[in-house]
Protein backbone atom coordinates (compact mmCIF):
# COMPACT_ATOMS: atom_id res chain seq x y z
CA UNK A 1 0.00 0.00 0.00
CA UNK A 2 2.88 2.37 0.80
CA UNK A 3 4.45 1.69 -2.59
CA UNK A 4 1.19 2.68 -4.26
CA UNK A 5 1.08 6.01 -2.45
CA UNK A 6 4.77 6.62 -3.14
CA UNK A 7 4.24 5.97 -6.85
CA UNK A 8 1.15 8.18 -6.85
CA UNK A 9 3.04 11.04 -5.19
CA UNK A 10 5.92 10.59 -7.62
CA UNK A 11 3.53 10.68 -10.55
CA UNK A 12 1.86 13.86 -9.27
CA UNK A 13 5.23 15.55 -8.69
CA UNK A 14 6.46 14.59 -12.16
CA UNK A 15 3.26 15.85 -13.75
CA UNK A 16 3.58 19.13 -11.84
CA UNK A 17 7.17 19.54 -12.98
CA UNK A 18 6.19 18.77 -16.57
CA UNK A 19 3.45 21.41 -16.62
CA UNK A 20 5.70 23.94 -14.87
CA UNK A 21 8.57 23.50 -17.28
CA UNK A 22 6.33 23.44 -20.33
CA UNK A 23 4.76 26.73 -19.18
CA UNK A 24 8.16 28.27 -18.54
CA UNK A 25 9.39 27.07 -21.92
CA UNK A 26 6.46 28.77 -23.64
CA UNK A 27 7.23 32.03 -21.85
CA UNK A 28 10.92 31.65 -22.64
CA UNK A 29 10.24 30.97 -26.31
CA UNK A 30 8.34 34.24 -26.65
CA UNK A 31 11.04 36.38 -25.00
CA UNK A 32 13.51 38.55 -26.91
CA UNK A 33 17.04 37.38 -27.64
CA UNK A 34 18.66 39.72 -25.11
CA UNK A 35 16.44 38.39 -22.31
CA UNK A 36 17.28 34.83 -23.33
CA UNK A 37 21.01 35.56 -23.29
CA UNK A 38 20.81 37.30 -19.91
CA UNK A 39 18.77 34.48 -18.37
CA UNK A 40 21.20 31.84 -19.67
CA UNK A 41 24.15 33.80 -18.23
CA UNK A 42 22.37 34.23 -14.88
CA UNK A 43 21.44 30.56 -14.71
CA UNK A 44 25.00 29.54 -15.55
CA UNK A 45 26.44 31.85 -12.90
CA UNK A 46 24.12 30.54 -10.20
CA UNK A 47 24.73 26.92 -11.22
CA UNK A 48 28.53 27.35 -11.11
CA UNK A 49 28.31 29.12 -7.74
CA UNK A 50 26.16 26.34 -6.26
CA UNK A 51 28.44 23.61 -7.63
CA UNK A 52 31.47 25.41 -6.20
CA UNK A 53 29.85 25.67 -2.77
CA UNK A 54 28.88 21.99 -2.89
CA UNK A 55 32.42 20.82 -3.69
CA UNK A 56 33.89 23.22 -1.12
CA UNK A 57 31.63 21.85 1.63
CA UNK A 58 32.41 18.30 0.59
CA UNK A 59 36.15 18.99 0.75
CA UNK A 60 35.83 20.62 4.18
CA UNK A 61 33.85 17.65 5.48
CA UNK A 62 36.53 15.25 4.24
CA UNK A 63 39.26 17.31 5.89
CA UNK A 64 37.34 17.39 9.18
CA UNK A 65 36.75 13.63 9.08
CA UNK A 66 40.41 12.97 8.24
CA UNK A 67 41.60 15.09 11.17
CA UNK A 68 39.28 13.15 13.48
CA UNK A 69 40.59 9.86 12.08
CA UNK A 70 44.18 10.95 12.73
CA UNK A 71 43.43 11.57 16.39
CA UNK A 72 41.73 8.18 16.74
CA UNK A 73 44.62 6.41 15.00
CA UNK A 74 47.12 8.16 17.27
CA UNK A 75 45.23 7.00 20.35
CA UNK A 76 44.94 3.46 18.98
CA UNK A 77 48.63 3.14 18.15
CA UNK A 78 49.59 4.58 21.52
CA UNK A 79 47.38 1.98 23.19
CA UNK A 80 48.66 -0.84 20.95
CA UNK A 81 52.36 -0.10 21.42
CA UNK A 82 51.89 0.41 25.15
CA UNK A 83 50.32 -3.05 25.44
CA UNK A 84 52.94 -4.72 23.22
CA UNK A 85 56.01 -3.10 24.77
CA UNK A 86 54.96 -3.06 28.42
CA UNK A 87 56.65 -6.35 29.25
CA UNK A 88 59.95 -5.35 27.60
CA UNK A 89 60.04 -2.02 29.43
CA UNK A 90 58.82 -3.10 32.87
CA UNK A 91 60.00 -6.72 32.90
CA UNK A 92 56.57 -8.16 33.67
CA UNK A 93 53.40 -8.54 31.62
CA UNK A 94 50.55 -6.12 32.12
CA UNK A 95 47.68 -7.53 34.15
CA UNK A 96 44.53 -8.45 32.27
CA UNK A 97 42.48 -6.04 34.40
CA UNK A 98 44.71 -3.14 33.35
CA UNK A 99 44.46 -4.18 29.72
CA UNK A 100 40.67 -4.42 29.89
CA UNK A 101 40.42 -1.03 31.62
CA UNK A 102 42.57 0.57 28.91
CA UNK A 103 40.51 -1.11 26.18
CA UNK A 104 37.31 0.24 27.69
CA UNK A 105 38.82 3.71 28.03
CA UNK A 106 39.90 3.61 24.40
Could you characterize what this model shows?
The chain has helices spanning 2-29, 33-90, 96-105. With 106 residues, the protein is an all-alpha fold. It folds into two domains: 1-30; 31-105. The longest helix is centred in the middle third of the chain and has 58 residues, at 33-90. The two termini are 47 Å apart.
List keywords for this structure.
106 residues; mainly alpha; 2 domains; elongated
Present the secondary structure layout.
Blueprint: H1 2-29, H2 33-90, H3 96-105
Order of helices and strands: HHH
Give the assembly state of these chains.
single chain
Catalogue the unreliable spans.
none
Count of distinct strands:
0
The averaged pLDDT comes out at: 84
Number of helices: 3
In angstroms, what is the radius of gyration? 30 Å
Proportion of helical residues: over 70%
Overall number of structural domains:
2
Structural class: mainly alpha
Main beta-sheet annotation: none
Quick one: overall form? elongated
Percent of residues in β-strands:
under 5%
| Distance linking N and C termini | 47 Å
Brief characterization of the structure:
This protein is 91% helix and 0% strand. The chain is mostly helical.
